[in-house]
Amino acid sequence: MKRSDPVDVIIVGAGLSGGITAAELSKAGMSVVCLEQGDWPDYANARADFDDYEVTADLHWGRNPNQRRSAADYPVDDSDSDISPLMWNGVGGGTVLYSAKWHRMTPSDFRVRSLDGVADDWPLSYEDLEPFYVEAERQMGVSGLAGNPAYPAGEGPPNPPVPIRAAGRLMANTLNELGWHWWPGSNAISTRVYRDLKPCRQHGTCMSGCPEGAKASTDITHWPAARSRGARLVTGARASRILVESGRAAGVEYIDREGRTDAVYAHAVVLCANGLGTPRLLLMSATAEHPDGLANSSGLVGTHLMMHPFGAVAGVFDQDLGTTAGSWGQQIHSMQFYETDESRGFVRGAKWGLQPTGGPLGITRSYPWAQSDAPMWFADFHRTLRSRLGHTPMWSIVAEDLPVAENRVTLSGTLTDPSGLPAPKVTYRTDENSRAMLDWHTRKAVESFEAAGAVETIVGPMVKESGWHLMGTARMGSDPRTSVTDRYGRSHDIDNLFVFDSSTWVTSGGVNPAATQAALALWGSKHLIETKGRIR
Q1: Is pLDDT at 4 greater than 90 in this prediction?
Q2: Closest by alpha carbon to 53, among 211, 199, 187, 217?
Q3: What are phi and psi of 127, to 5 degrees?
Q4: pTM score above 0.85
Q5: Sign of CA dihedral 490, 493, 497, 498
Q6: Average pLDDT over residues 440-458
Q7: For residue 436, how many other CB atoms are within 10 A of its CB?
Q8: Which DSSP string corresponds to 250-279?
Q9: Is-contact 196 224, C-beta < 8 A?
C-alpha cells in the first residue's frame, strides 16, 4: 500500500478484539486493513463426529504454541513462569479454541483499590461498560439467563442457556442444600439458530474445533460482515514494527509468508495482538526517540502481566452422569465465594464453572488428572478408567490474579520466531494471595462434591498449562506516569496509537475475560469513531 494513500486504520490481530473492531469501524464507513500472522481455521479438522477425535485433536487444535509450532506461531520463553501462555494464532484468535465461558466482571472488579486496598481502580466502571456488555452478548449470540443475583439487574443474553445435564442437576441441588449460589451457565455458545451460528449439539469439543459452528468465534460472527463492508484482512502477515513519523504512528511493517518485508500505512494503528503480542510489538518498535519501545514513557509496557491462576477439581461418582459430553463451557456456575472475605486469609475471590471431563484420553492427560498428586498411569488402569469415564464432573476455578509489576513480558535475547524476530520472554510467579486463594477454593470444591456423594475427588491445585488469559501489559489509566493508555485505549505518548486488547486491563477480576474484552473493544471502537478527526 502506498505511503501517499493511507487507510484510516490498521488493526494488528484478527482475534476477538480485532474482529469486533474491524466490524465496528467498517460499519462506520472507515477504511480498515487488518494484519494477521495466522490463517483461517480449517473446520474440516473438527472431528467430534469421528472415532479418531481424541487421537487427532492435538494435531490440529493444540493450544500451546511451543508444542504446536505452526508457521503462524512465535515461541514463548516461559522458563521463568509458573504458567504457560496459551493462544491460537489465526483468524478468530483465542475464540477459535476458548471454552466460551462468558462472564461479565462485577462492579467490585473495577474498584479493587477502593474496596480492598490492593492493586488499582480502573478509570471506568461497570456502569460505563454495561451497554457494551449487552451489545457484545447480542453480537456473539451468548446463551444464558438474566437475573443472576451476583450482578446488578439488567438485560440478559439473547439465547436460552445450554442444557443442564445430570451432573449439573446433581451439583445444583447440592449447592441448594449447602445454601451456596449457583446459576445456569453463560456461554458464547448458541442454543438455537442465531444469525450465523447453529445450535449446539453438546459434543463437548469446544476447545478442539466446533464441528457445527455453534460456538461464537469472530471468524464466524464478525469477519464475514467486516469484509463485506470493505475491511481488508491480510493473513500470513507477521507484524514486525510500528512505523513512526513526526511523532505519530504512520503504519505497520510486516513480513509475509514468503519472508518479504512490506508495510501498510494508515492514519491510526490499533493493536489487538493479545497481552503478549502487543507489548512484544511495542518493544520491537523502539526508535532513537523511543529507545525503550513505543508508548513506554512510563516504563510499564510489558509489566503487570496477569494470567488467572487456575485450579480444577473433579468428583468421581458411582452413577453415570454423562460427563463424556455436554457444553465444555459451563452448565452451571457459582460465585458464592467471589467477593473478599478477609477471614479466608486472602483478598478477592474466584468463579467456579461446572463442565464435563470428556473421553478416555481426556481423563488421563488433561487437568486435573495430570496436575494432581494421583499418578496418570494409576494402578488397575482399565477398571479405574471405566469407573471415571462418564462419572466425573469438574469444577474449573478461575482465581483473580492481582497485578504485580515484576510479572512481565520482555524480549528474549536468544529465542526468535520463524522470521528471526525476538520471541517474548515471560517472567511470572504466582503470589501468596493467589496460592492461598486456590488452596481455599479447591478445598471448598472438594466439600461440594463430597456433599453430593462423590466416592473420590481429584484435585489439580494449580494447572500450569492454563495461560489463556493474558492481561495487563499495557494498562489503562488517567495518569501517563502510571499507565500506558487512557480509558479508551489511546496511547498517552502517541495519540493515534491504540490498544484494544486485554493488555489494557488494570486488574483481572476472577472470571473468564472474553465478555469484558469484547465490551472494551466496542467501547474503544465507538470512541475512535466519534473522535475520528483526531487521528488525522
Answers
A1: no
A2: 211
A3: -65, -35
A4: yes
A5: negative
A6: 97
A7: 15
A8: EEEEEE-TTS-EEEEEEEEEEE-SHHHHHH
A9: yes
pLDDT at 535: 66
CA dihedral 369, 375, 380, 384 (to 10 degrees): -20
Provide the pLDDT confidence category of residue 1 given band limits of 50, 70 and 90: low
* Measured distance CA(242)–CA(126) in Å, rounded: 32
Residue with cell 439467563: 145
Rounded CA Rg of the chain: 22
Choose among 431, 426, 402, 401: nearest CA to 415: 426
Q: Which residue has the cell 474466584?
A: 350
| DSSP SS3 for 34 | strand
Distance CA 337, CA 318 (A): 28
Q: How long is the chain?
A: 536
Helices (H) and strands (E) in the chain, counts: 13, 16
Grid coordinates representing 511 are 472470571
| pLDDT band (50, 70, 90) for residue 370 | low
pLDDT reading at 68 higher than 90: no
CA distance 202 to 396: 18
| Average pLDDT score, the chain | 94
What is the pLDDT averaged over residues 451-468? 90
Distance CA 121, CA 112 (A): 6
Cα within 13 Å of Cα(286), Cβ side: 15
